[in-house]
What does this fold into?
Amino acid sequence: MNLPRSAKARLAIDVGGTFTDVVIERSGGLWTAKVLTTPDGPERGVTSGIKEVLNDASLRPGAVGIIIHGTTLATNALIERTGARTALLTTEGFRDTIELGPESRFDQYDVNLVKQPPLVPRDWRIPIIERVAADGEMLRPLDEACVLEAIGRLRTGAIESVAVAFLHSYVQPAHERRVRALLQQHLPGVAVSLSSEVSPEMREYERFTTTCANAYVQPLIAGYLARLENDLNAMGFACPLFLMLSSGGITTVETARMFPIRLVESGPAGGAIFARNIAEQHGAARAVSFDMGGTTAKICLIDDFTPQTARIFEVSRSSRFQKGSGIPLRIPVIEMVEIGAGGGSIARFDRLGRISVGPQSAGSTPGPACYGRGGSEPTVTDADVVLGRIDPQLFAGGRMPLQPRLAHAAMAGRGSNDVFGKDAQGLAYAIVEMVDEAMANAARVHAVENGKSVSERTLIAFGGAAPLHVGRLADKLGISRVIIPPGAGVGSALGFLLAPISYEVARSMYVRLKGFRLEQINALLSSMAEEARAVVAAGAEGKSLTERRTAFGRYVGQGYEIPIALPVRALTQADGAGLRAAFEDSYRKQYGRLIDGVDIEILTWTVTVGTEAQGAPALPTMAERSAATPSGWREIFDVGGGRCIKAPLYSRSKLPPGTSLAGPAIIAEESTSTVIGEGYDVVIAGDASIVMTRRAIA
It folds into this structure.
């Protein structure tokens, strides 16, 4: 993996549900560590991994110039409902907005449909007398006596965090700001989130839920970051700490404390950046990234070397794969599908004897049975061990040897039905096929929802479990080219080192193209650019900045907007025609037609400011091809063929660029192993990536 070189070392930390990955880079050298996550105190796992990787690299903390961190802490708190005791102050008459939602059913045929309960219970959704019109006019002044009465209730209820979300506050935030001043005066220890700052866009349901989610995780993230900073200082680090954002950029700790909801998909976003870099290096303009870790699998579409992005994201879905069944968050994200299919995913039988895998995970505590930490239920990792696909002595770089007998015991103990009896291998085969099909189905659905296909794309696999499953996944998706980059086991952490420092500001202002209000638009965009630059400036000293402006428009009366690129300058009257042409071009690409005689309205404007993205270096020239020599042989279960076979075993560190081999085979490395199916040929590319190509049928 080619990373930009730096005089001082750079440290990346990715805290996942099962493993914490730590990567250090200096002058092109790369050292990695994979340790178990410590859920009761994630900073302990982080410091453990840092000490390990510094020791391997023979470096002191003072040699590190920057630390970049991504974490699933906010995501897990939302899913597991372990956030702060939160209240919502909202406009009188709108306290039930977050429970009513858009009044739609995500599955109209399910008579037993269960909706995701709101983060804030009704008793702590307190109405406040005030009202602002959609154009910002004050219709009813803020009743401060009502606010003070609410504060008394909050104090009695030991509320830890407060979301303030008033109707149309994205246009006129004065009432929300006054409420914050009163809260800080009378409840100084309570965290406060304003919707006019967290998500200043129209559509109150999404704005309210996003603000509540930000308030819900804010004390948790603030406490964690404070403890982490203290630990890093105690270790001797004097460099800045940055946080990975769900949009693919990085930001300061101060911004992360204010808007922790933007960290929700930080780890997976790093993985998408990593995959984008690999795609560009290998000339794969149409790619799909496959990131499978210990708890979840993430799939992201990449077109023209750019990961797909979105402006709304759902978390904590009550129904698997069902769009609309989760909590909507209006934040900039790299769009991907995420399912509970990882190495720790637990396999169970239902009352009809059918196998289901995930979304429940054994995590790091107790972990899969083969970890020997008290887990007894069979997991995907246990299945891989039983099938011979993982070398127990090399797991996690040999730092955590696995116990195959415990994996077999877990399989045999759970296989006591008419189909499997005590056949551990048969149950392991079924588990692996189930999880591979679940991931393939998720990829197909995600592609179809976006009007795309996956079969003609290059599949880029990373994460500790992905190389074990990528061959079978490619078979199921009809993909003929697969790339497993070096450092695949810690891909997300490597992506952090490639991410730019950036920040996006969004605002809603309704404009019709026929009534193009230049003065207001230019003033809005200018103030947004200043706000974004102020956030980025703290970490981008001495670096040149780029700016991107986007408008989100639709035909009048429609319900959804599409993006329109804007020039980075003051708009002129002549730009009206250009915006219409850009909108029509995007609309035609997405829907295949235009609507004549209907005006275009713009609802939302965004400005993103950031440092230059790291460009992928050219792929090094590959040496003349030479056949690889196996270091041994291993009996494995060929999942595609449904039988046991003897496969050659190769050490990845001993396969120089230009080396070729044919499947079936296993390529082992410190952080993972790659299983090569019978139908694939492999060549080691100039950047040391494993490139699998489906063998042509004669």
Remarks:
- Residues 9-78+222-263 form a domain with the Nucleotidyltransferase; domain 5 fold (CATH 3.30.420.40).
- The longest helix spans residues 204-235.
